[in-house]
Fold this sequence. Notes:
This protein is globular. It has one domain. It contains three helices and no strands. By secondary structure, it is mainly alpha-helical.
Amino acid sequence: MSLYSDVKALKTEGKTIDEISVQLGVNIWIVRVVYYLV
C-alpha cells in the first residue's frame, strides 16, 4: 500500500498525526502534509 492509503486508513481509525508518524516510521512533516490531503 502507498503512504497515502496507509495514512488515510489510520486517519479513518481516528489516529492522531503523531501516532501515524510513529506507526509508519515516517517523518511527522510528511505525515502532516499527507494527512491534510486525504
